[in-house]
Structure to design on (452 residues):
């Protein structure tokens, strides 16, 4: 059983890795800094480790999906991230793709489930 | 608070210098945010700091995520050939050392203990050297190949008609060719490095009584020679990695040949590369008598040998490059 759990953990990690990007992009139509984004996603039920999120933000910025800006007006300087115009476009397209994946996978799962039930 | 700085340092020192400062500043403000959230206004203790850092995880892993790609000297694509060549090289080095050891025992059985010590010492120095050269050669191959795979990725619009033709026979490099080359160079290096005093004319006077060396043992000429052979190994490694004659490979081999050529010129023009007392020693060994006709002939050959060796080396190296171009041409 623990063997199965281990496999599930691994697969879930892979599954999450791909979806985190969509999650992050979805929250950045308003500027956010690293930690506010962790809390924001956490509140909405998407737990992301800070150690994963911070480098991801930088990578997305490098890829041109995010713009960033240091805000030095407050007591503590913070780096804010915001969707760039490319980012917006990418995010919208990703949403379409995501819905496609969900519906086709749901279809597959339900089909299998239906068959299985029928055999019982 | 010092712990935070230590953590940030541990992460950023593994990052490219131009990114360090920005990431450090961002990380610092993020850690402070996390601390603030955790303590909710009360005083921050060391335990809080520790827990926040644990949440961020091992600095090495964090740095790796910041870098994105994994870095390596020899990647999975050429790892197999690397291991194969490494085995061949190490085995041939070990074999050459053992053969040298046996020769020494046969010729001079009395000081067997000395030879054994020498054998062990050269084993300890030569194996890592061979390992280093091989790895160096492959690292260059990886570097060159790395550019290749990047080019392939950029090339997004792929279709089957773009598939490269199977290289024709003449263009393909048979695997055994570079392998044989590597073994040959390695053996030569070993022989030169360990027993350059045996690289010469062996004098028998009823029994073996010594060697008149070709090279001047007191100068660095031998090392340059080894360097040239080292370049030879790099070249063979490149051939093994590419597997066929391509324009790039020919350029690479031509470049290594050019470097070798420069080394040859330095070597020959350098101070006393050859044994300066060669002729004298030949006379002393009783093989020649001064003034005789043979003496004159040998002397002339000896004096002109430098010239001819350079000519042969130069022709060989240039031919090697031209040969590559011809092989590319033939397949077109």
């Amino acid at each position: 059983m623990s063997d199965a759990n281990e496999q599930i953990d691994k697969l879930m990690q892979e599954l999450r890795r791909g979806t985190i990007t969509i999650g992050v992009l979805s929250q950045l139509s308003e500027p956010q800094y690293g930690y506010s984004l962790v809390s924001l996603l956490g509140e909405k039920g998407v737990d992301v480790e800070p150690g994963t999120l911070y480098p991801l933000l930088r990578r997305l910025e490098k890829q041109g999906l995010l713009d960033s800006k240091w805000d030095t007006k407050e007591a503590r300087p913070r780096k804010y991230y915001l969707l760039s115009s490319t980012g917006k476009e990418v995010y919208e397209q990703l949403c379409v793709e995501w819905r496609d994946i969900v519906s086709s996978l749901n279809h597959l799962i339900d089909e299998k489930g239906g068959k299985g039930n029928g055999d019982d | 608070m010092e712990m935070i700085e230590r953590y940030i340092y541990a992460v950023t020192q593994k990052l490219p210098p131009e990114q360090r400062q920005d990431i450090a500043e961002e990380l610092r403000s993020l850690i402070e945010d996390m601390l603030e959230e955790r303590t909710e206004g009360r005083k921050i203790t060391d335990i809080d700091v520790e827990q926040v850092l644990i949440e961020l995880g091992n600095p090495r892993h964090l740095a790796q995520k910041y870098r994105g790609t994994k870095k390596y000297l020899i990647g999975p694509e050429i790892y197999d050939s690397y291991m194969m060549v490494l085995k061949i090289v190490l085995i041939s080095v070990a074999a050459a050392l053992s053969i040298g050891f046996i020769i020494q025992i046969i010729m001079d059985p009395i000081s067997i203990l000395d030879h054994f010590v020498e054998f062990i010492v050269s084993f300890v120095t030569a194996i890592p050297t061979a390992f280093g050269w091989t790895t160096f050669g492959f690292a260059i191959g990886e570097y060159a190949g790395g550019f290749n795979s990047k080019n392939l990725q950029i090339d997004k619009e792929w279709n089957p008609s773009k598939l490269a033709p199977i290289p024709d026979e003449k263009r393909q490099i048979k695997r055994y060719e570079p392998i044989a080359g590597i073994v040959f160079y390695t053996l030569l290096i070993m022989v030169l490095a360990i027993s350059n005093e045996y690289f010469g004319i062996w004098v028998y006077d009823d029994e073996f009584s010594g060697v008149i060396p070709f090279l001047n043992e007191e100068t660095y000429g031998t090392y340059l020679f080894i360097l040239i052979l080292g370049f030879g190994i790099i070249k063979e490694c490149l051939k093994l990695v590419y597997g066929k004659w391509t324009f790039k490979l020919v350029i690479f081999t031509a470049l290594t040949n050019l470097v070798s050529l420069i080394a040859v010129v330095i070597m020959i023009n350098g101070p006393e590369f050859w044994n300066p007392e060669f002729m004298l020693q030949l006379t002393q060994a009783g093989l020649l008598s001064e003034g005789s006709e043979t003496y004159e002939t040998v002397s002339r050959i000896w004096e002109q040998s430098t010239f001819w060796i350079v000519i042969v080396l130069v022709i060989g190296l240039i031919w090697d490059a031209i040969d590559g171009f011809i092989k590319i041409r033939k397949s077109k």
In short: The radius of gyration of chain B is 29 Å. The first helix of chain B runs from residue 2 to 12. Chain B touches chain A at residues 23, 25-27, 29-30, 32-34, 37, 55-57, 61-62, 65-66, 68 (CB under 8 Å).
